[in-house]
Write a structure and sequence with these properties.
heterodimer, A: 385 residues, six-stranded mixed β-sheet, four-stranded antiparallel β-sheet, 13 helices, disordered N terminus, B: 485 residues, alpha+beta, seven-stranded mixed β-sheet, elongated
């Protein structure tokens, strides 16, 4: 859990954090309640926070915890700065199979996460900075937040041509997107978060955000692809560390806070009670895939010289109905109903489909290439997921 | 009033019975019919005044302003359905507008009566989103005596309007109060905004009657026994404590659900396996020398980045045995007319994962060294744990070994996995005393193996000879070295 190139122990980090906080009592206070240390805002009603973790699920859980637990009364507000190891993060109501190459992600060991806010799919790695602005519902203002980011950038790189669009993106040199936005609104509190591309691996980005899956029809939110650029392409000094300092300073200046960053450990159940179960929820299959809005898959698969049509209706990530049409000349034809029955009610997941079809292939006659045909068909079905 | 309400059912029967004697036969059947309808609390022909059993008030909950001039949103997910009870601030649905996901929460307590939109519909700000039947009384619309209304369709909708007072409580709490003849106005609410909670009703009851309350039955401790030194007159019976015992009530219910996915696959495989006449053959293997050998080789293997267990040895020994008894690595067709002797030794191993039993196999064991097999097992285990086993890994097996002993057990009767013809189940390795050649008692590491084979093509003698050969390789690993290809 040591990140950002700083090779110090976590204990020391925490001590630094405490020291920073005790020096400036106005920044934030740790309140003891029932022998637990719970994080709250102090008299200044504002804080600049940074996550100690680069695990996307821990960070999303942290963001969720702050949204639900920060007391934003009396104009309370906070800024959270965080980074993730390579991961694809999609919006709350998106379909991962339409947005990215799920199979490639699995192969390369790149994780897939679903956040709580809306918006499109993005690729994060340690060359990307995530910024979350927590405010009350009344004070929710995305334009004001992005203006703050632009001011911070211009303060460290005066000649930088960066501006916000009416879709709340940040464009560099008028053409290239360096930041995308999403938001979550609750009853009394809200947050607006955005990315900031400092030095992201653009090749990996474009490779994973391309979906190869055909035949999917759904009403899920679609991402709007845009050409992107790294800030370091324009000004090599704009590393993530520099951006963090610049934005924290700008925020502290704008809201009259002490210029110090409080470090939060998203695995600390004492300071952030309940965060562990949120982390578990964020990495569960039921959240990442199960929350996909219902969709249909309709494909014609070419196996040897035959065409097989497959239609599936998927709800909550589970195949609700499945219909497989095999040509009359297909060998071991009766297994078609068997495959259909196995798929119905199981998860729309390549791993599961392979396991199920392996049991079907056991009973397949092993002569005349029958098994090969069936194996080819099963592989193609699994590759749809 | 509460007492009147509480005995409503009794009164309804009495009143209808009165009608029974007064009216004609035709009317009688109708009255009986009314009696039998359990959901009706009031018989329409009643003539006495009661206080209210009015239906709750239905409020149209409109979609409030999202901000930023947004007029329409897309409904993405409902957290409630018609008939659900909600409390104030519970989440009702999730809507999306322009990159923002918004959670809409309820402003009222009550029951959801109608959802105005389906998922993926466009909802409009200012227009109704849901109808909620509330039970909270609003100032200004109180009525002292409300004339009874005809049939109430559901018991849950009984609603109390108490003269001049506003009491906040959910329908379930109100019913509990009514069943126990409690006036809500006399109960102090400990919830938000003075809301009366279930615990408040139970506390009130316990104060009133000192009764043992559900759901936490209190066991009254027995009074202390009198000390033996105390003088006791003869006619007084000795004090015997009578503990109050409460029988726990079992509220579990049977649950039926259809078989899905992996269970269905297992059913299919095992049903096919049932057609094979199995015979079993068991033996004990002395692994003392193998245990020592593995101990010596473990660090060498780990230095190459591979975890070494006993399985690679078991698998390699099986392959060496199959070279001498190829019929155990064969397959018969459906009609049992032809037998195919498989050239490759693709030895499967049973793996226990979250989804259940899966059997990936190591391909061409006849070509692999023990270390190669160990590396391959590591790879398959990692893939199996993350649910990423490929079709190739899962199909094409010719012989299977199941290490059930890693979980526990000594003997097992494994089921052959078609289209194979044999399977071995390995028990756990136990340290037991045995006699050596000199007649001394020594410590021996012993494992039991249980083979199952298809008796249509394999006879006991073949299985026994194969088992002896396999056993000899493991009991004397140096012999394996002699025959290694």
């Amino acid at each position: 859990m040591i990140h950002f190139g700083l090779h110090v122990s976590r204990a020391m980090f925490a001590r630094v954090a405490f020291a920073a906080c005790s020096r400036s009592a106005q920044c934030c206070t740790y309140v003891r309640s029932c022998s637990r240390t719970v994080f709250t805002l102090g008299p200044s009603r504002g804080a600049v926070l940074r996550s100690l973790s680069s695990d996307v699920f821990e960070n999303l859980a942290l963001e969720d915890w702050l949204h639900n637990n920060l007391d934003l009364s009396e104009e309370g507000h906070a800024l959270l700065l965080w980074q993730n190891a390579p991961v694809v993060v999609m919006g709350r109501h998106q379909n991962p199979w339409k947005e990215c190459n799920v199979g490639l992600l699995r192969e390369k060991g790149i994780r897939l996460a679903r956040r709580r806010s809306g918006g499109g799919t993005v690729y994060h790695d340690l060359g990307n900075l995530n910024i979350t602005f927590f405010t009350s519902r009344k004070r929710y203002d995305r334009a004001r937040n992005l203006q703050l980011v632009c001011s911070a950038l211009k303060a460290v790189s005066p000649r930088l041509d960066v501006c916000a669009t009416d879709r709340f993106d940040l464009l560099l040199n008028g053409d290239f997107k360096v930041s995308g936005t999403a938001a979550k609104l609750g009853r009394t509190s809200a947050y607006h978060h955005c990315t900031l591309l400092s030095n992201t691996d653009r090749r990996a980005l474009s490779a994973v955000l391309k979906s190869p899956y055909q035949g999917i029809s759904s009403n899920a939110t679609r991402s709007v692809p845009s050409p992107v650029m790294n800030l370091t392409d324009q000004d090599p000094a704009l590393s993530c560390e520099l951006l963090i300092t610049a934005i924290a300073q700008q925020y502290a200046h704008q809201y009259c806070l002490e210029p110090s960053i409080a470090l939060l450990d998203p695995t600390d159940e004492n300071t952030l009670p309940g965060i562990r179960s949120t982390t578990q929820e964020m990495l569960s299959w039921e959240w990442v895939f199960g929350k996909t809005p219902k969709f249909d898959v309709s494909v014609s698969l070419k196996v040897a010289d035959a065409i097989v049509t497959l239609c599936m209706n998927v709800k909550n990530g589970i195949i609700d109905t499945c219909s497989l049409e095999l040509p009359a000349t297909w060998p071991y034809w009766e297994a078609g109903a068997e495959l259909q029955s196995l798929l119905t009610g199981s998860r729309f997941c390549a791993g599961d489909a392979k396991l199920l079809s392996s049991s079907l292939l056991r009973s397949c006659p092993q002569t005349d290439g029958v098994q090969d045909r069936w194996r080819d068909l099963c592989e193609q079905v699994a590759s749809l997921m | 009033m509460a007492a009147l309400r509480g005995s409503f059912r009794l009164l309804s029967r009495l009143v209808c019975a009165h009608h029974y004697s007064t009216y004609s036969r035709g009317r009688l059947s109708r009255c009986v019919y009314l009696l039998n309808r359990p959901q009706l609390k009031i018989c329409p022909h009643r003539y006495f005044r009661t206080t209210t059993v009015a239906a709750g008030q239905i409020v149209q909950f409109k979609l409030s302003d999202i901000g930023e001039g947004i007029t329409e949103v897309t409904v993405r997910e409902w957290y409630v359905k018609e008939g659900d009870t909600v409390s104030q601030f519970d989440s009702i649905c999730e809507v999306q507008s322009d990159k923002a996901s918004v959670t809409i929460t309820s402003r009222y307590d009550g029951v959801i009566k109608k959802l105005y939109y389906s998922v993926d519909d466009t909802a409009f700000v200012g227009k109704p989103l849901v109808d909620i039947e509330t039970d909270a009384v609003k100032d200004g619309i109180l009525e002292e005596d409300v004339v009874e209304t005809p049939a109430v369709s559901h018991e849950e909708h009984t609603h109390q309007e108490i003269k001049g007072q506003k009491t906040l409580a959910t329908p379930a709490v109100r019913r509990l109060a009514m069943e126990n003849n409690i006036k809500l106005s006399e109960v102090v609410g400990s919830g938000r905004d003075g809301r009366i909670l279930k615990e408040d009703i139970l506390n009130y009851l316990s104060k009133q009657t000192g009764a043992i309350l559900p759901p936490t039955p209190e066991i009254v401790p027995p009074p202390p026994r009198p000390t033996p030194a105390a003088p006791q007159p003869h006619d007084k019976a000795p004090l015997k404590p009578t503990p109050v015992s409460v029988k726990p009530v079992f509220t579990g219910k049977d649950r039926t659900e259809p078989l899905k996915g992996f269970q269905k696959a297992m059913v299919k495989t095992m049903t096919a396996a049932l057609k094979i006449p199995h015979f079993g053959y068991c033996d004990e293997v002395d692994l003392t020398r193998l245990v020592q050998l593995r101990q010596e080789l473990k660090s060498l293997s780990e230095s190459r980045g591979v975890k070494l267990s006993y399985m690679p040895f078991f698998i390699k020994a099986a392959s060496l045995g199959l070279l001498h008894f190829p019929i155990l690595n064969a397959s018969v067709d459906e009609s049992c007319q032809n037998i195919t002797y498989k050239a490759s030794h693709n030895i499967g191993l049973a793996m226990d994962t979250q989804q259940g039993l899966i059997v990936p196999n190591v391909k061409n064991v006849q070509l692999l060294s023990v270390f190669d097999i160990a590396a391959e097992l590591n790879r398959l285990q990692a893939l199996g744990a993350s649910g990423q086993l490929g079709t190739n890994d899962l199909t094409g097996g010719t012989f299977t070994v199941s290490n059930i002993g890693s979980i526990g057990g000594t003997y097992a009767k494994a089921v052959i996995l078609p289209p194979e013809v044999a399977i071995g189940a390995l028990g756990k390795i136990q340290v037991l005393p045995r006699f050596n050649e000199r007649g001394d008692v020594v410590k021996a590491h012993l494992m039991n193996v249980s083979w199952s084979a298809d008796h249509r093509i394999i006879d006991g003698a073949t299985m026994s000879r194969f088992s002896n050969l396999w056993k000899s390789y493991l009991e004397n690993p140096a012999a394996m070295l002699m025959d290694l290809k």
